[in-house]
């Protein structure tokens, strides 16, 4: 099965700073790379994703970059705001079975 | 758009009691459906997934079971709850372009 590692497990930044979360996976067949945001007491929500034929995707303040050779992809959040505080999960997908989620990164944006 | 209804939102049950959590999906037919459990401050553990009516795959041996009696209905059950069954239970549906999650059920076994 897929081994997924996510770093760091916790991240505290000042409002306005950037945050980067890295996800490393093991299955070279993974071809879809989503990031989810989970706010307290709620289910995770897809915030950005990328397919294996693209190296980078940006949506306003968030972006995802992919390095298929090294088997890792990263979430980048610029100009962080307090509402970005949440737990973020990666979940590389081979399309063959259910998603394996990373262990999560708790992001705290200090106002 | 796809919507997942999950209930109840919170549940407190005594050890040894039965459990039934229901999930229904709107906006798509023949969805892949999933049950995940999340312990406090932890990641998402896959419990069951289903690719169609009556088709259930179990990922973790435990005293929980799942059923899919209708295309858009997914049920998580237990005959006798354990303290270790406490957690946040999430139903999800997937189409190959990411998952949509329900709002979850927080189960506390006392």
Overall description:
The complex is a heterodimer of chains A (111) and B (110). By secondary structure, chain A is mostly beta strands. Chain A has strands spanning 4-7, 10-14, 19-25, 32-38, 45-51, 56-59, 62-67, 72-77, 86-90, 105-110. Chain A is 0% helix and 51% strand. Chain A is globular and about 40 Å long. With 110 residues, chain B is mainly beta. Chain B has strands at residues 3-7, 10-13, 19-26, 32-38, 44-52, 55-58, 64-70, 73-78, 87-94, 99-101, 105-109. In chain B, the strands form two sheets. In chain B, strands 2, 4, 5, 6, 9, 10 and 11 form a seven-stranded mixed sheet that branches. The chains are: A mainly beta (111), B mainly beta (110).
Please describe the topology of this protein.
The complex is a heterodimer of chains A (111) and B (110).
Chain A: E1 4-7, E2 10-14, E3 19-25, E4 32-38, E5 45-51, E6 56-59, E7 62-67, E8 72-77, E9 86-90, E10 105-110
Parallel strand pairs in A: 2-10
Antiparallel strand pairs in A: 1-3, 3-8, 4-5, 4-9, 6-7, 7-8, 9-10
Chain B: E1 3-7, E2 10-13, E3 19-26, E4 32-38, E5 44-52, E6 55-58, E7 64-70, E8 73-78, E9 87-94, E10 99-101, E11 105-109
Parallel strand pairs in B: 2-11
Antiparallel strand pairs in B: 1-3, 3-8, 4-5, 4-9, 5-6, 7-8, 9-10, 9-11
Structure summary:
The complex is a heterodimer of chains A (111) and B (110). Chain A is built from no helices and ten strands.
